[in-house]
Structures are given as structure tokens and as C-alpha cells.
Amino acid sequence: MAERRRMSYSVHREVLDEEAMDEMGQKSVSKTSLREKVKKSVRCSGPRMKSCLLGTVPIMSWLPRYPIKENALGDLISGISVGIMQLPQGMAYALLASVPPVFGLYSSFYPVLIYFIFGTSKHISLGTYAVMSVMIGGVTERLAPDSDFMRWDNVTNASIIDTVARDEERVRVAAAVTFISGLFQILLGLVQFGFVVTYLSEPLVRGYTTGAAIHVIVSQLKYTFGISPERHSGPLSLIYTVLEICYLLPETNIGTLVASIITTLGLIAAKEFNAFLGKRIPIPIPVELVAIIIATVISWQFDLQQKYGVDVVGVIPSGLQPPVFPDASIFGQVIGDGFALAVVGYGIAISLGRIFALKYGYKVDSNQELIALGLSNSIGGIFQCFSVSCSMSRTMVQESTGGKTQVAGALSAVVILFITLWIGSLFEDLPKSVLAAIIYVNLHSMMKQFLDIPALWKSNRVDMLVWVATFILTLLLNPDIGLAAAIGFSLLTVIFRTQLPKYSMLGQVPETDIYKPLDEYHQVRQVPGILIFRSSATLYFANAEMYQDALNSKSGFDITKLLSAKKKLEAKKKRHEKKEAKRVKKELKQNGVDVNKEPNMEEQNHVSVIEVDPERDPSLPRAIVLDLGPVNFLDTVAVKTLRSIRKDYGEIGVEVVLAGCQSSVVDNLQTAGFFNDKVTKSCLFTTVHDAVLYCQSAITQSQSLENEEIAATHF
Description:
By secondary structure, the chain is mainly alpha-helical. 60% of the residues lie in helices and 5% in strands.
């Protein structure tokens, strides 16, 4: 790359403070009232109604212009590929949600169709997702535990679990929490709350999904080993579950374990082979579908359930379930879980959606995505689905196989519909351990996220701390409470960083109007008689006191001691004057002079005076410039701090001016009463250089006056 040509420029203008700037720029003082804003927002017109309708139902804007020749074939191939993928994943993730596998197929059908109508992302694949499923499973097992469905079996003379009643109750719980999460998403979308995802930073999301993946793996170990551990809930439940699984390992079903190990190894090998052939074949081999077909045939042929006690999927009813409104009596028990599901599901979907939108040059409406996901979940809850989001693996397949629009998602739903109506019952002999193996293999991308730790250690250790803390909190407190704790911890890191900013004294780059920290640049020089102070963070109640302390420390002198010494001198002067006045009064009284009348000049001269303002300390600066460029708002505590700084330093003869104030900061100063008859906007300057030039001029004038006074005294 050629060396950039250096250019020079010269600007000649007056020194500008905020008053002069307002006058020169003709600052607008009119502000739109809240009433006007509300009136404008509810105003209705034909074009606005059309725009609102097309924004709320995006399919009406893009489907009529759908380019069939360019996109139809790619969307068709992509839709079939993703639909085939949805079958094993839907059934496997239903186990995570602790509901029968067929409900995973329902969750891969209804919500996908709703998103096809209301969604704005062209590439994400909506459907079942491991993290969401394990969060649903935590709710269903908490509100419908096995212990509530124990009944006595007269044949075996033992207590057994009524699995039919238990599964029905768990489906009701899953539908209720899904419906509530959808309502939360719709509400947040309607109030334009799409920015809430900004509180889910990338390290937080990746640490959270990694921690949730560990929960997913532990929840599937019972299917891998063929054991039945008790369900634990609340903080540390993961540790209790692992300990109990270790205790039950001697009861492992060998047939189940062998089936799981063979499936896991086979899927890993097949996926590596798929990756090797990725550029040679247009469509990836559906290895998961092949795995469940082979496993189902073997289980049926060798009767693994009866001969070896291998747990299988069981009855898969054909057809679709009629819509049923969720049980409202459950809503109060799942509000917190519903909100957590709403935030996590939206955060994952919008993050992935923005990646592909940036890659292909289109816009994803964050608020409309909230509404689309909310409708998908709330309507899905009525059709007994559980909460959905987008899956990275399916989305990558949808994109790599040529999917260009939401039509690919709709076609994948058609494939699921075909499977649900006609061939779903063929998979009744599928071992659950095979579905657990599919889950393990699909989580390999989340396990690779552990590599974020060394990368973040090198780039940003605070982000690494957020990642690790989120991971640990998710493990120990479960995904729901862990998410809230992780967000709180992430916000605390932001607060701590604003509480501990970098404070710098600035100097001038020779022959420029640029000012840089003195401790970072060797050629930067301090302006004689002027201190320029800057904080790297905004100024508010949490760091206002530290700001003042840092200024006192960086300035090189103790303002508190100087003020204290001045007050002592003033007190000494008053005591001395009072003593002298008494002495003079006594002398006058002895001389027969009326002490009640006004003393004349000769009598006043008898009173000695102590000078409070002796010669100025040459080590003190003449002026201090506070660079407020990094500050974007001031609260009342910060304004009081600035007022105190001006007052304290002013008392020892050091003028304090502000520079680089943003409009919001000037408004905050004005609102908080910083300005008065003595303090005007003339102490605020547009740039640091303007402030320095003003201070230099003031210092020159002050020194001239001092020299004149000295000359007059000598004369």
C-alpha cells in the first residue's frame, strides 16, 4: 500500500465558547413536546397505514415479487434438506423438553409456518433448539415430576409411573410456558424493545450456550446409560444429578450404552466425511436421518426393547393435534421462565439473523423479529408446541444448499407435515439412546466455544471474565436463574469500568491544536501555567468523587491543604483585627474620644491588618481545563462536583474552564442549575484548543496587571 500523503491545513477563526457558538450556529431552542410526539405517532394516513401493514406482515411485500426462476430451485432443495434434518432433531430435542417425541415434530411445523409469514430474516432456520428445549425440560420436570404420577401396580406389586398422565401434564406445562414466552416477545416488540438484545453481549451468549450445552449433555446421560435418576431442581441441581448418575452407573443397561456409543462414533465419522465431501456434492448426506432409520430397523428386527430392555420412543400418533388454549392456571408459576425463554430465544435468533443479513446485504428488523417469534411461540403454544428459536446447524445447511428466502423454511415445514401425517409411526421402535447420541454430536460446535477462553485472554480479559462467569453461573444456577445472574454480572463489569476509567493530563503536540496524554507521548509538551485534565469515561454519581480525587492527585498539589491554610489565615486575620480594634477602642476611650462615632482615617490607621493574599505560589497553575469530550451525560451529583471544583480552585486563584462539551452535557448543566449570574456559558469552550488559547490570553493579561502593580509599588 502506498504511503498516505500528508496534507496540511490552516484555519483562522476566533476563540469560541458555547455562547459564541450558539450565536454563530444559531442553535435551535425549540423542542418537540411529549404531546406532539404522541400526536405524531398516532397520526394515520394512507401511505403510513400501507407501510405499517407491510412492516407487520412482511410476506405481503416480498412474496409478490418472488423471483421464481432465480430462487425456486435453491429454496426447494434447501427446504427438503432442512426438513429431513428437522425430523431427528425435533424428536431428539423433545426428549430434552421431557415431552413425547411427536411434539418435537409439531414444534418444527406450526412455528415455522408462522415465521414464514411474519419473519424478516431470509436465512435462519426456525425450529427446535437444544438450549431452549433444556430450559423447557427444567420447567416441565419441576411442575410435573415423576413422583406426582406414581401408582400401585397389582401385577408386579410395585409402584410404577403413570407415563401417559405424566406426559399429558408435561405437554400442558410446556404449552403454557411457550404461550407466555410468546406473549412476552410480542409485548416487547410492540413497545419497540428490540434493543434489549444489546444487553446480551457475544461473550455472554457464547458462555451461556456452552453452559446450557453441559446441562443438555447431563440431561441425556440417563438415556445413554439406561438408568432412572431422580430429578433435582434449583441451584446446584446439575452437580446433584451428576453425583446420582455416578452412583447409579452399576445399573447401566449394556444394550442401551452400546447403541449410544456406536451411534455417536458413527455420526462423528459420517459428519467428518460429509465435511470432506462438502465441496464435491451439492447436498450434504442426511446422516442423522440415515442413523435413525438404521437404528429403528435394527431395534425392530432384534426386538431390543423386549430382549435387552432398551428404552424406545414408543407410540407416535399420526396426524395433528387440535388447537387447545393453554391452561391459564399454570401461567402464574411460569412467568419468570417465560421471560427467560423469550429473551434467550430472541437473542439467539437475532444474533444469527444479523450475521446473514450483513453477509447478503439486507436488513433484519429487530422489533419485527420479536413479534414474529412471539407469534410463532404463542400460536405454537395453542397447538401444543414448545418454545423454538433458530439452530446454527440447520441454518448453515439451509444457506449452503441454496436457500435464499423464507420459502425454504416453509418447504421444510411441508416435509415435517408429510412425515407427521404418514410415516411418523414407523419410528416407534427407535431407541432413545440414539436420539441422545444425535444430541451429543450436534453439540460439538458449542463445545468448541471453549476455545473462546484463550482467544479472549489475549484480546480482552474483561470479556473473558464475562464468558467464564456466565458459564459457571449457568452451570450452578441452571439456565433460567443463571441467565439473569450473568446479565447482572455483565452490567456490573460495565459499571466497574466506568468507575475505574483512565485519568490523564494532556499536553500539546508541538505546532498543532492536538492534545494527547503526557504519559503516552514523548514529544507532547505541557502548556505553561495550564493543566488539561481528561477522564476516559462519562461522569456520574458512581465515579464523581473519584474524578475529583484524580484531579487533585494529578494536579500535583493538595487543594484541601491549600484551602485549609487559607481559612486558617483568614481566621487569624479576623482574630488579630478584633484584638487590634479592641486595643484602639480602649486607647481612644482613654483619650476622651467618643468611640460610638465613625472613626476617621487617622484612627483607622492605628489598626494593623494581616494580608491574606500574599505573593502567589509560582508552583500553582494559572488555569485548569477539564476536557469533557468523552462525557455523554451528567447527573446532578456530577454537576455538583464540577461546581465544587470551580469553587475550590477559584478560591486559590486557579480558573477552571470546561471544554468539548456535547449538547446533552450542556443541557444537563443548564437543567441542574450550573449556570447563574456569575457562571455563564462563557466558561464552556467548543474545543480544548479554544480553552487553552483563552486561558493563555487571560494569563497574559493577569501577568501584565501584576507587573503594573509591582511597578507602581516601587515607584
